[in-house]
Design a protein that fits this description.
The complex is a heterotrimer, with two copies of chain A and one copy of chain B. Chain A is an alpha+beta fold. In chain A, helix 5 crosses helix 7. In chain A, the strands form two sheets. Chain A has a three-stranded antiparallel sheet with strand order 1-3-2. A three-stranded antiparallel sheet of chain A has the order 4-6-5. By secondary structure, chain B is mostly helical. Chain B is 51% helix and 8% strand. Chain B has ten helices and four strands, in the order H-H-H-H-H-H-E-H-H-E-H-E-E-H. Chain B has a three-stranded antiparallel sheet, with helices on one face. The chains are: A alpha+beta, B mainly alpha. Chains in contact: A-B, A-C, B-C.
């Protein structure tokens, strides 16, 4: 058997047996392999091998694991739902943290326009999807929150760049602070004559 | 901002997350009264929902129409329990103000202009709308435990740490030696240290004072060739001896300042005084 | 994709996600397949596919499950060796056993003058230098301990008679009263990197 095939077998067995996703470094360390590049190459080959199969090899936030193919979900779904149902508030808070991280509680609340009950963040932290990520160096030094590797795992994201629609949101300025957006909007829509003003008037007078 | 803040954050802990409180407060008979607000996470959320009904694109909504829709909605839901709907009512008041400001001639506007406030509201709605959509798309992904599944019974990876102990013969016999030494019966003895007693210092100092009437420094009284240890003892006992002589009226002490040399001199009349006594 | 390949994928995912081995009947029932023979054929094909891989599909008592290839089992349970110096207390206990064997725990304690934690003897037995050597026929029948051949190996002794006697210890200054021995140690230690000082501390903390 070639060295590459042998390494593939080894990685396959290790990732099958592992109880949690493993990074390339963790794999290299566990297997006593000096060269992470070799591991990466073998993982890529292994991933290709599994593409058409009922089990896939996926990378989430730099960590690798096997999981069943998404198209087989209907056959595997258990009677009792294993996934915790998130309240609407929790869902929204999670999205705001994921798209804005790191973000403070006050910032979350200003986007949602309501206070966030203590339980909402707790639920997300208990699920292991969100965790405190230091403090912002502004008056009051508020704690800021960010998503975790488990968040990427759970939602099948290779990285935060994979968040649905994040590029468009960023491009349209919807992830910028409100004050910045206001300034930008005021700059581009001069009050008096001009198309922009016309539109605005029209909107307002409707 | 000139005191006109948008009332988004007025909901207090009591109301908490608006809809949760409303739902909890609902009892069968009263349901109809406030189910109206069930499902909204506060006034901004209700506004967003109303805006969505206008047009698909939040950038194109009419704020005036939105204000009317909101006020109409609140009016229809007039039987709301007030304490639960307070933040909705505050928003209604603010929107009514915004509407009247928008309708006034431009010259009479204060800063920030109502257009600015309206734009701000619109941007907030866009942001909340964007996050709501993002949340929905996030929840629709292939989620572990719902759409994709991990290995049901992984063997698990284990790293067993095995300790290899190390020692050597010298350490071993040294340890034994120390056990024996530690547990052997012990004999204590107090070492004989070289000291100058107060009595001998007294003798020595008064003898030396008898020789001259000049001031002498206390270190002049110390034995010149003594070891450092003996010198320390001599300094201490000579000092006490000097104090004792001063107390008896046979010598006087002088020191210019703290840590300055301590000087000592025989009192001139001391011999005489003794005779008289 | 052929029906057979599709069934293979399904079985692959089901067995991967299953928490316990599944029989052909259970698989057929779970997947709503009326014909167990079909399942059996697909399982056989799947088993062939995995023969050369790092994971095998195996049948045990009529129930099927995935497991890592037997030749890779060593990867799942790795041993890391860690070399540690014997603690002061353990060294003392070992010395006492070596000089006085066979010796009971109570006797060790009375010679040491301090209580000996159970862990200390465990360490010596784990190291393979000491083992129980029967019981003393006195009330309570305490276990007595003795050194092992590995002990002689490790310490470079041909036999226990090679251990220096009390007189020799005294001659080499090893029986000096502790204070003086420690004072002497302290005088010489500062230059070295504190090995002896550490031992002294340990000794005091005993």
């Amino acid at each position: 058997m070639s060295a590459q095939a042998s390494l593939e077998r080894t990685l396959e067995a290790t990732l099958f047996a592992a109880e949690e996703p493993l990074s390339v470094d963790a794999l290299a360390a566990h297997l006593g392999l000096p060269d992470p590049a070799e591991v990466r190459a073998a993982l890529a080959a292994l991933q290709r091998h599994y593409t058409a199969r009922g089990v896939h090899l996926v990378e989430r936030g730099g960590r690798w694991h096997f999981q069943t193919a998404p198209d087989l979900a209907h056959l595997l779904r258990r009677e009792k739902e294993q996934v915790r149902r998130l309240s609407r508030a929790a869902t929204e808070v999670l999205a705001i943290i994921a798209y804005h991280e790191p973000v403070s509680r006050a910032e979350i609340e200003s986007i949602r326009g309501v206070q966030t009950s203590a339980g909402t963040l707790d639920v997300l932290m208990e699920a292991g999807w969100v965790s405190p990520a230091g403090r912002r160096e502004v008056p009051g030094r508020p704690v800021v929150y960010a998503t975790t590797p488990e968040f990427l795992d759970h939602f099948g994201l290779a990285s935060r760049r994979d968040l649905p629609g994040i590029d468009e949101l960023r491009a349209s300025g919807l992830l910028d602070p409100l004050d910045e957006a206001m300034e930008a909007a005021m700059r581009f829509e001069p009050d008096e004559d001009g198309d922009g003003a016309g539109e605005a008037d029209e909107n307002l007078a409707d | 901002m000139s005191g006109i803040e948008q009332p988004f954050m007025l909901a207090d802990a009591g109301a908490g997350e608006g809809d949760a409180a409303l739902v909890q407060g609902a009892k069968p008979g009263e349901e109809a009264l406030y189910l109206e607000l069930d499902g909204w996470e506060g006034p901004l959320d209700l506004l967003l929902d109303l805006a969505r009904r206008q047009k698909v694109d939040l950038r194109q909504i009419s704020i005036l129409a939105l204000v009317d829709q909101y006020l109409g909605y609140i009016a229809r839901a007039g039987a709301l329990r007030l304490e639960l709907a307070a933040d909705y009512l505050v928003m209604a008041a603010w929107l009514a103000y915004l509407k009247s400001a928008l309708l006034l001639p431009k010259e009479e506007q204060e800063d920030p202009s109502p257009e600015e406030l309206a734009l701000r509201l619109q941007l907030r709605l866009q942001r909340l709308g964007a996050m709501r959509e993002a949340a929905a798309r996030l929840m629709a992904r292939d989620r572990i435990g719902r759409d994709v599944f991990l290995r049901g019974a992984p063997e698990g990876l284990r790293t067993d740490r095995k300790t290899v102990w190390r020692s050597d013969l010298f350490t071993l016999i040294q340890a034994y030696g120390q056990v024996k030494a530690r547990t052997a019966p012990r004999i204590y003895h107090v070492a004989n240290r070289p000291v100058i007693t107060l009595d001998s210092a007294l003798e020595r100092v008064s003898a030396m004072l008898g020789v001259t009437l000049e001031w002498m420094e206390i270190r002049d009284f110390l034995p010149p060739h003594a070891s450092p240890e003996l010198k320390r003892s001599a300094l201490a006992s000579s000092f006490v001896a000097a104090l004792e002589l001063a107390k008896r009226g046979r010598a006087e002490l002088a020191q210019e300042g703290a840590f300055a040399p301590l000087r000592i001199r025989r009192l001139k009349n001391s011999a005489q005084a003794r005779v008289e006594a």
